[in-house]
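The instructor's notes for this session suggest beginning with a concrete chain rather than abstract definitions. Hand out the sequence below and ask the class to guess, before any prediction is shown, which regions might be ordered.
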Amino acid sequence: MTTLEREHGAGSQPGPRKSALHNIHKPVFIPASVVIIGLIVFAVIYSATAENAFIQLNKTITSTVGWWYVLITTGFVIFALYCGLSRVGTIRLGRDIERPEFSFGAWLAMLFSAGMGIGLVFYGVAEPLTHYVNPPASMGIEGSTDAAANQAMAITIFHWGLHAWAIYAVVGLGMAYMTYRRGRPLSVRWLLEPLIGRERVEGPIGHLVDVVAVVGTLFGVATSLGFGITQIAAGLQYLGWITVNNWWTVAMIAVISAIAVASVVSGVSRGLKWLSNINMALAATLVAFVLLLGPSLFLLQAWVQNLGAYVQALPALALRTGPFTDGAWLGSWTIFYWGWWISWAPFVGLFIARISRGRTIREFVVAVLLVPTLIGSLWFTVFGESAILRQRDEGNMLVDGAVDTNTSLFRLLDGLPLGLLTSLVAVVVIVFFFVTSSDSGSLVIDILASGGDLDPPKPTRVYWATLEGVAAAVLLLAGGAGSLTALQTASIATALPFSLVIVASCVAMFRAFRYDLATTPRLMHVSAPDHLATELTGDDQARHDVSATLAGLVAVRTIPIDTCEVHETTGALTINDPVDPLGPDIVDTVTEEELEEAEARYRATHQSGADS
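After discussion, reveal the predicted structure:
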């Protein structure tokens, strides 16, 4: 692509819009629908068989390719940091003069809500408490001790920190670059174009990649929706508000699905943006409430220490595969999480790409890696440390000696002031997180199933959002927890082929970035001699002898493209210089005596050079 094409044509989707049915990409839409419906029917009819088969498949993946998940996930962290810290970070995800579509705050709220917001609510109390009570045996730390508490938080942040978001960042960065910088459709398959070529990307290989992405995304969202409904129902029953039955389950799924359909139809700029902002505000209120009414000083001290413990433990945990011990523990936690995040990478990565137009790669990487990691560490510290402290002091956070994931959050809130009110807020936060996950997942699936159309037709958006709700309802009512466990394992299994796609996309993006850096011009601002003399003397009426002395020199400085504005009509370029935080100089920076001495040295140097 030429510079002119890159400036004016990247990211465009030419051609008139046809009817909704014409936007369906049949080689992806039809096979994905058939596979999804077929697996749902299989899981319901053969619930026990499917559960056993998928659990055995999960054990096989853990014992045979678990090391692969550990290795490549750490590799993704390194690749993402390379993109953000090197010259690659200067590349903009769009035209060079393009600005972000969304504000920074709205952008963070949307990517965080869609990424793993619901996971923070679901596991915020349960996971740290579980690692505290039952730490991994090979690390030699006894459960329910101070050392176990510190280790529990380091392990939890490790599972939800840089490694998790690096997977999303690599996929999202590649798709955003290919779409907004190079003008390709927003689809997973185009990540591979720099490596295998356009012909193969548009053929069966590309269709297969997108089908795997659609199937994994829908099962991931549907499974999370099912577990979320289970948590909400268990929480409401714990508080004595309802008695869980099938009617309540159907009603809750119907309400959440209806809100998700309304949101996904209204689009990213309206429904999803508003819901994400409202939800993040409610979540922030909830965490602030627990922080302020709980042991505030203890939690702040613990947060700082937990960050340090995470950084200290990161090198050891990053490549830990447990070949002699802890194979079962790693399979249940670390390897499970890496497979789970990889299976969700098409969904979260594509959605992050969709909302990141106009950002630089450096801004993208720093925000996607660091901001959610910091927010997640604070969240887990507030809820997890509060739960651990409660268990140490009062011993009432366990159920029959074990952690109940569904009710642990409500048990914690029940012991604080205004427990009923905060529990209600927690239910609303859980619902909103599921809605944002459902509608963003539906939007992503629809973009993939419509060939990368950034504004897919509304009927198909409704189709995918409804299918997610129906899948969750049918599995909960007909198949029970066994079907959900089986399909959760099935979605993790999709991570194995897709992990190869992500690794290949890293190689492809490296080649594309090198070409971009080699062909993109850099802007230089050249100062004329009079201007240079003015800068040296600090005098607007520059002395003519200085101008004459410096007649053979020019001042050159690199100008970042985002500091320039191009007039739409004339094309004139205006440079917006940064504002000096110190204001004007109080005294002249160059005195007359210093200027005369500089001129004398200059003449002496040039005279001696001429003599030699």
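Then share the key points. The CA atoms of residues 193 and 199 lie 9 Å apart. The radius of gyration is 28 Å.
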